[in-house]
Write a structure and sequence with these properties.
By secondary structure, this protein is of the alpha/beta class. 57% of the residues lie in helices and 8% in strands. Keywords: Cell cycle, Cell division, Cytoplasm, GTP-binding, Hydrolase, Microtubule, Motor protein, Nucleotide-binding.
Amino acid sequence: MATMENVIVLVNRIQRACTVLGDHGGGDGAASLPTLWEALPSVAVVGGQSSGKSSVLESIVGRDFLPRGSGIVTRRPLVLQLHKTQDGAQEYAEFLHLPKRRFTDFSLVRKEIEDETDRLTGKTKQISPVPIHLSIYSPHVVNLTLIDLPGLTKVAIEGQPESIVQDIENMVCSYVDKPNCIILAISPANQDIATSDAIKLARDVDPTGERTFGVLTKLDLMDKGTNALDVLEGRAYRLQHPWVGIVNRSQADINRNVDMIIARRKEQEFFASSPDYSHLASRMGSEYLAKLLSQQLEAVIRARIPSITYLINKSIDELESEMDHLGRPIASDAGAQLYLILELCRAFDKIFKEHLDGGRPGGDRIYGVFDNQLPSALRKLPFDRHLSVQNVKRIVSQADGYQPHLIAPEQGYRRLIESALNYFRGPAEASVDAVHFVSKELVRISIGETQELKRFPTLQAELAAACYEALERFREDGRKTTLRLVDMESAYLTVEFFRKLPQEIEKTGTGNPRAANPPPPSDDRYTDAHFRRIASNVSSYIGMVSETLKNTIPKSVVHCQVREAKRSMLNHFYSQVGRKDAKQLAVLLDEDPALMERRLQCFKRLELYKSARDEIDAVAWTR
């Protein structure tokens, strides 16, 4: 059965775990971790400076333990967890940051709060949102958790930044904004309630007053003949919950170290004997306030447990998913490190091959080189200029030398063809280069798409460099092989093509092969018709070769570059990695510090949520 005691203790434990594991609420946008702190029900104590806030807390606890002084005394949130013990048990206090030390002298508790505050903020008057956790075990308290916040102020004093007023208000609002937060708004009775800093802030975040408990202090210091009944009876400012009046110890009592138990008795006597407040005496005083808050906190916790449980389970799923994405921590031995590197390389290689083979986009760009770029480049070769009558005449004449050819200008044909075939080298090399650049781009994309590699920027760079080096070797092989195809066309012409030429000429109908041959030399040595015929024949041969190369160049490129990239791009890298020692492998697995920090924070937060889930599961709930 879930009693009042164990549900409050449950939240206390989760709050302590939150602080230990760095969950103080708040966030920094999309990168922020899920926070459990903000979902936990709490009681936030809010009040202006000199409102009697510290005295109220000490009255509830029954001990002097809070720092006192002028200006801002509370500069860090104090999460005060009260644990009721058996009658006669010794009272003691424990700090979360000093888990093995028990404080039985509460003046030392005050000193430790001051020292722990200074540890984060220094001796300045700065504030910090990181809470101090203090647990007090006593037979004189009820089970209750209170969060003491810095007192609201209107002006910065010497040594404080001008922003301190807004900084304090922002910190307080970060607590009281939460729908699970009970607001304990403390106001002094000897000031107009309309000017109360606590009530003004509570009204802004809780306009209906559902979460606000109003506390009126310093009733004994009001001017003679006046009272605070309009406030305590809800006429001056109405809340959903009744106002509670408190009579704190006077400064003289504090100076004389009047015992808090005696002070509580005097407070009860004040209300019981007051002609103004005696009819409200049963609902006044610090003891009543503590019981009221404990009951309300227990009710809120019970109501919120289902939503907290849902949040915990949802956050565990999200954090485990992110941890999977971030990857497991790196082992320290060389064998495990080498295995991890090879696994990462294989994951990259799989994605790279998927790009080439069509499982992912990009490989089609290689086909585009062969289907569009290469044919277009071949069509744009300057054969019209090369086979112009004037150029053909020049080359044939130079090839003939001082003796004109007798039947057909064979040397002229060869020179025309060989010089024309040289033009094919450009498109051939361009195809090799284009596929090379596509391959490099696919390497870059594949590295970026290999999620596991994102942890290791050094390995990414080394892997990319190794791939680019391998692709460069493949490009050189592809260039040599592809240009060899062009050179082979020059090295041995297709004789059958030229043997068919006389037969084609005889089909003109003259029946005289001589009639198909160029006429006798004129004054220009040969006629233009003769050179046009030579140009046409060479053009036909070049067209045949172009069709051949359009088919064979892609074969060469794929064989030397694409096929080898799929088969052996990482072979050299594997052999290099296999020779590295543990220190060198660790360098490759040097993670991004930001990612390492993110993993650590996710791990801590996941530990927190699992701990909270176990705590909740350990409680037997009743409806």
